[in-house]
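**User:** My hope is that you can spare some time for a protein that puzzles me. As I understand it, each token names a local backbone shape. I would be glad if you read both lines and explained how they fit together. The protein I mean follows directly.
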Amino acid sequence: MTAYLSITGSIFGLIVVAHVWRILEEGTHLATDPVFMLLTVAAAALCIWACRLLLNARAHTTPREG
């Protein structure tokens, strides 16, 4: 489960970084596009959610005795 959350959070984080980079490169007219902004905010929310679940999952796992 933690591997899935790590990968998912990373992918959505990269999408957010790519969107912000695109806004910086192409200009602020993208920031006025509601669909683009909705997708950026949704990707950011999913990234934050995956990170919170990952931290919660790691906090509740018990170390295995070897």
About this structure: The first helix runs from residue 2 to 26. The chain has two helices and no strands. The mean pLDDT is 91. The helical segments are 2-26, 34-59.
